[in-house]
Amino acid sequence: MGKVYLVGAGPGDPELLTLKAMRLLKTADVVIYDRLCNPLFLHLTKRTAKLIYCGKKPYHHAMKQEKINEALVEYGKSEGEIVRLKGGDPSIFGRVREEIDCLERAKLPYEIVPGITAASGAAAYAGVTLTDRESSSHVTLSTAHRKGDHGESEQMAGFTKHGTACFYMGMENLPFIKKKLLEQAVALDLPVAIISWGSYGRQKKIVGTLSSIEQLVEQADLINPALIIAGDVVSRAPAESWFEKLPLFGKKILYITEKPFSFEKMVEFTSRGADIWFQEVGPNRDKRFDALTKKFLKENDFTDFYFENEGSEALFKTKC
Ligand code: SAH
């Protein structure tokens, strides 16, 4: 019988992966992963490990939750170590309860490995502190939609003027969030930040108020995944965060290499703020990544290119 690990992958920056998550990825036989996990983490797995995508765009599921639950139980019964990799922390809007219930029913052993949730990651990398002795004594984490219910019953009673409210999956529901916040007697000039792709080199941030934020989103063309933070803590953050000031922030690098993927090499770039994609090429490449790479290249553009040959340290860099 196998064992299932329900693992949080953190918000995206490779160095926010926990040591435990890294160890489990290295030994896993099967990895079932979500859209919001940094896919480069999959390079940590053994070449023999099976990689199964069950990613979700809001409202578009590659695999229905019931199917994911079934797969966990099936693989858990037959294979060795199964890692169910989820973005952020598995217990925060990660539907992990449903998966645990299935594993319990099937009497399969499992462990939960927490991760850094998007609110912590995106706030830190946007220079926002979630609490602050001057202006915020508590934080609420909410989602603007729930299972089978995209509407009115969501309540935000936890929010007050002296708190910070973080909204997950809220981009499609900004007018609703605004309405609910106003019901809590907050002012229209309540500071609001939206951080998309927090902690990745492609992070984008807009800062406004409850009254201006919808228009700012339209102008900035912000995309999911994005986290909404409302509260006075937002106005106390510097316009440009420590992360946005890193020397390679804004660079989108495509690193094409005949050598095997190197986590350390990736961190050389991401720790200086860059967004990076690794593409192994040549007959020895890990072919499990071909489809992923194809998809990634279709959806992204790049500012810088690196080419690395097998057997040579020489690196050629061109700009487009
Ligand atoms: N379990 C995850 C949340 C899953 S819900 C966690 O703990 O972070 C998915 C939502 O999380 C997205 O719609 C978005 O609101 C938020 N999110 C996840 N990763 C993010 C990131 N890197 N930057 C900003 N928001 C993110």
Automatic annotation (TrEMBL):
The record's top EC class is: transferase
EC numbers? 2.1.1.107
Q: Name one Pfam family in it.
A: TP_methylase
What name goes with this protein? uroporphyrinogen-III C-methyltransferase
CDD domains membership = SUMT
Q: Which PROSITE patterns match?
A: SUMT_1
Keyword Methyltransferase belongs to the record: yes
List the InterPro entries hit by this protein, alphabetically.
4pyrrol_Mease (IPR000878), 4pyrrol_Methylase_sf (IPR035996), 4pyrrole_Mease_sub1 (IPR014777), 4pyrrole_Mease_sub2 (IPR014776), CobA/CysG_C (IPR006366), Siro_Cobalamin_biosynth (IPR050161), Uropor_MeTrfase_CS (IPR003043)
Sorted keywords for this record are: Methyltransferase, Porphyrin biosynthesis, S-adenosyl-L-methionine, Transferase
Q: Does the keyword DNA-binding apply?
A: no
Organism phylogeny: Bacteria, Bacillati, Bacillota, Bacilli, Bacillales
Cited PANTHER family: S-ADENOSYL-L-METHIONINE-DEPENDENT UROPORPHYRINOGEN III METHYLTRANSFERASE, CHLOROPLASTIC (PTHR45790:SF3), SIROHEME SYNTHASE-RELATED (PTHR45790)
Could you name the domain of life of the organism this protein comes from?
Bacteria
**Where does the record place the Tetrapyrrole methylase domain?**
3-213
